[in-house]
Design goal:
The chain has 122 residues and is of the alpha+beta class. α1 (2-21) runs antiparallel to α3, α1 (2-21) packs across α4 (90-105) and α3 packs across α4. The chain has four helices and four strands. It has one domain (2-121). Strands 2-1-3-4 form a four-stranded mixed β-sheet. The radius of gyration is 15 Å and the shape is globular.
Length: 122
């Protein structure tokens, strides 16, 4: 019982911290100029189940490929920091973040990768 309650507390705290993780890149930009959201809306980038983004369109331009690398580097650093603070694996943080992003941030028509590795539209 105590272990379940502790895990719930950890997860609740993580969800608060992870709210910020889902919108990397947007904090310093005006609401109408989020390159990640633009790339998602264009079908070039999607969310993976591990909490990272990936190219949906392998022919995406170089700036989109760089955006994917930049977002993933920032997320990796954030996941590692949160994981160290909460004493949980970084992979767990990424997976929880992915669920939250897919459920709450992605808009209809945007892509996410399902458990089998296939791209699906929300």
């Amino acid at each position: 019982m105590r272990k379940a309650k502790t895990m719930r507390n950890i997860l609740r705290n993580l969800m608060v911290a992870l709210f910020l993780v889902g919108s990397f890149g947007a904090a310093s930009l005006p609401a109408h100029a989020d390159p990640l959201d633009d790339a998602r809306a264009a079908g070039q980038v999607g969310e993976r189940a591990d909490g990272y983004v990936a190219l949906v369109d392998a022919n995406a331009p170089a700036d989109i490929k760089q955006l994917v690398n930049d977002v993933n580097a920032k997320r990796r650093a954030a996941y590692q920091k949160i994981a160290a603070e909460k004493s949980v694996p970084a992979e767990q943080i990424g997976a929880i973040t992915a669920e939250k992003i897919i459920r709450e941030i992605l808009k209809p028509g945007m892509y996410y990768m399902d458990a089998s590795g296939s791209w699906k539209q929300k």
